Amino acid sequence: MSIAELQAYGYFVLTFLLVVVLYGYIYHLYTKKRDADGVDYESYSNMALKDDIDDAPVSALSDEKVPFEGAKK
Amino acid sequence: MENRPLEYDYTIAKMFMLTTIAFGIVGMLIGVILAFQLAFPGLNLILGDGLAEYTNFSRLRPLHTDAVIFGFTLSGVFATWYYVGQRVLKVSMAESRLLMTLGKLHFWLYVIVVAAAVYSLFAGVTTSKEYAEFEWPIDVGVVVVWVIFGMSMFGLIGIRREKSLYISVWYYIATFLGIAMLYLFNNMEIPTYFVTSPAGESGIGAWYHSVSMYAGTNDALVQWWYGHNAVAFGFTVPIVAMIYYFLPKESGQAIYSYKLSLLSFWGLMFVYLWAGGHHLLYSTVPDWMQTMGSIFSIVLILPSWGSAINMLLTMKGEWQQVAASPLIKFMVLGSTFYMFSTLEGPIQAIKSVNAIAHFTDWIVGHVHDGVLGWVGFMIMASLYHMAPRVFKREIYSKSLMAAQFWIQTLGVVLYFSSMWIAGITQGMMWRAHDEFGNLAYSFIDTVTVLHPYYAIRGVGGLLYLVGFLMFAYNIYKTMSSRPVEERELQSASPMGA
Fold it and tell me: When you count CB atoms within 10 A of the terminal residue's CB, does the N or C end of chain B come out lower?
């Protein structure tokens, strides 16, 4: 088998796998509806709508790093 | 000072807003001059024979494309990143002295590189690769600026309070990674200083000249992989980032389907990179690669329309806002033009259509309904939304904005409709032949026929430039408008009469 044939098979397998992964991701999104932390994907729109610096994060990174921390000096 | 509440810091965003407007005026002005030069060739000598070297079409053309891509659009991308990034990550630039320093360094180095690029292109120093004309010393500068942009972006992401990244941030990250990869690989070049000719000569040419690392068909392939994906990661991905933030924010509506935004993102990333081959249909590139370019271009309709429809449906039940607000008009029409040009592109990539469209003005028309209708409208809309928030003043004039909207829309329509007619006329005339296979027309026959359409295109471009100057004036006057209260800035932007 020549290098060109190997590349062609490799290309096909890679494309096929990526298609499977993409459709798997779509299936996951629409069946689970929530991410690993249990947050509904749709609520992430609030990251733009409630984006003042003192608005509560949709899911905070950690309990210690609450907003306004930077002002308390 | 001690207990002053934390605020977002828009210093860097403001600086890049300024360059967005300045480079936009320069890039578009050169574009209008070029359009009229094509219609009236005497304009190539507009400043006399002595300066013809600097005013002719071929010297100015790369200045136009590079000024609007790397000047206007990239400035807009940076300006919106330094605004949106802080807000959706809920962290202020003021919290990190390092990030502020990086941001300022990013801005000033960017301005220096742009100045060097403008100077070198005016001087006629070029690699002759489309959209990659800069010679190696400037390429090095571009890479430095880009790395600093990346450090600044990931630095901000690193100190965020919001755990998840908003969809716009995904798109900004993709912009950073995509352009980094494309720019590096397409600009692989060897300074002529190190090159030895077959005859044994070395140290050929000036120190700043270089030759591409690739030759022939390979060079063309890498070039159009780059060229097409510069459209992807410069004109599509960061602009989608903008609309996913600014349209929901300005209208007060949640994204119609956040899940659709996620899968469209991965769909776009998956498909776009393979479509560049459609620039090389009927060339020496292997046939299977041309077919792949065509097929992936057609598939690209799906993720593109996924984002565009998601944006239009975000306005569901709130369409009265489109009538009421010129700012929403810009974004909704931008999204519509995005749908339109992402349908037009794939049609042109079909081999049989491309046989007529290739090398004609239809391609130029396609590019411009995308950049004028989608990229330009979204960047201006984003800056309009940002202006009251960064200057804490209402937008100077709503009626001026509305007038600008209609003037520019008319300009875009004149531009693409004239180029459609010109392009298809060109394509048909080039291939027409008699029963013996003799070509029916010579090249000059097409030039004569196209003249009126070139004039219309020039007028369309001029209208767009006039609208852009109205935008610049409106933003300038906003800086001295009525101050606004915090509560006025929740969603719809406050505007004066």
Answer: N
ipTM of the complex: 0.84
Structural domains for chain B: 11-195+208-355 (1.20.210.10)
pTM, 2 dp: 0.94
- Chain B residues touching A61 at Cβ < 8 A: 160-163
Q: Is B485 helix (H, G, I), strand (E, B) or coil?
A: coil
B1 touches chain A (CB under 8 A): no
B244 contacts chain A (CB < 8 A)? yes
From B374's Cα to the closest Cα of chain A, the distance in A is: 21
Cβ separation B160–A54 shorter than 8 A:
no
C-alpha B350 chain-centroid distance: 24
For B161, the closest of A46, A48, A61 (CB atoms) is A61
Phi/psi of residue B162, nearest 5 degrees: -85, 125
Q: How far is B243 from chain A (nearest CA, A)?
A: 11
- Residues recorded for chain A: 73
Give me the average pLDDT of each 10-residue run along chain B (497 residues).
Answer: 79 97 98 97 93 94 96 98 97 95 98 97 94 96 98 96 95 97 94 85 86 92 93 94 97 96 93 92 91 94 95 95 96 96 96 95 96 98 97 96 98 97 96 94 95 98 98 96 90 90
